[in-house]
Design a protein that fits this description.
With about 400 residues, the chain is α+β, with helices and mostly antiparallel strands. It has helices at about 10-20, 25-30, 90-100, 110-125, 130-145, 160-165, 180-190, 195-200, 240-250, 275-280, 285-290, 300-305, 320-335, 345-360, 390-400, and strands at about 40, 45-50, 65-70, 75-80, 85-90, 205, 220-225, 230-235, 260, 290-295, 310-315, 340, 365-370. It folds into three domains: about 10-145, no CATH class; about 155-265, DNA primase DNAg catalytic core, N-terminal domain (Alpha-Beta Complex); about 270-400, 3-Layer(aba) Sandwich (Dna Topoisomerase Vi A Subunit, Chain: A, domain 2), CATH 3.40.1360.10. The protein has 15 helices and 13 strands.
Length: about 400
Amino acid sequence: MNERKHGYIDVDSLQRELASQDDVVERIATFYNVQLSQLHQTQQETRMACGFDCGKTEATSDRAISVKTDGDVPLWRCFHLGCTVRGNILSLMHWTKHNRAPSGNRLQGAEFREIASDLAALVRGEDRPTAAGDEEAASKQDEQSVSEPPVNVALKDSENERARALVTLDEKFVRDVAEMNPKAAAYIRQRPYLTPEMMEQYRCGYLPSSGGSLLRGQFVYSWPDAEGNILTWFGRNLNYEEQHRKWKRSGDSKDEPHKFRFVKGFHRGLELYGETQFNAEASDSRLQENGIIVVEGPNDVMALNAIGVPAVAVCSNTITTEQADKLASIAERTGCGTVSVMFDLDREGINGSQQAILEIAKRCRTRFVWTTELAGGQFKGRQPESVTIEEWETAIHPALIAVL
């Protein structure tokens, strides 16, 4: 066994050793005393239904999770609609043991050490740590989470001098299409609501490759808090569509490209995008008719704003408990009492909107803004950013106020 001094555990070697076994998935389940659903196995992979508590609102197929077992290190991912959960053998062990994602969606610190120790015991054929030991470890983690809850700090208040200097990053943005490179210019032209005035209002724009930031060469958005203080900047990958097409053609041989890039350490699940403008522009009459409209992304917020419809975004196709709490709080504070969900009408957005409705309904009144059946199906596959003022006034808004 390749273990070094000072408690070092060679997880790479251990994963390879475990991968040499034919029954990797069963061995992990037995180690944690977890009952598996039916397995569908070939020499290359094991398929099974997802039994994890990952926020899904419906049962998956019996082949939703794929565990590739033909490489040096087993890799797994879930193919359930709208799900992006994936990882290596350590990640699978954490999900199997705790039935939830690692903190921050990646194994590190105490969580990593815990699962690495489990992996070493599993490969050695030992029993897992005692229940009492597990409870003690969980108690320590709970104490840590209570004393140090995740929080986003405004850049101006950061202890990091370089972070404080980023408060005015938008001074480097280019908002004139004529001065952008072809990809950035095409991105703007395809989104006519992204006028220079709108970009200035939301403090977003194209950051040239000479912009001196990790986000250079991307279309960059600000994320202010409710008071307008910048919490972070995040970038939109202008090559995403091309990269995603290549990724699909590759047969999922590597990690799926990301559409947005967030700065490490920012907890987006704690915030709502667009709160500053929403608070300034959402009149009482609109709130009573529309409720608090919540969408997926920043472009949806700006496009709806351009046609006079205030909205906020979760910057995801699912909602967190913290975001649901915030939405319910705004609904109560403004007196409208209702949150209206308007996610994309593609498969991922529809699944996510169902999850959001169920989560928000625990706190306040909620409803769908649109569905694939609305107006004879004319909005099927659409995103909020594509809605025109005529479509809002003649189809969506009348249907929305009809359920008041």
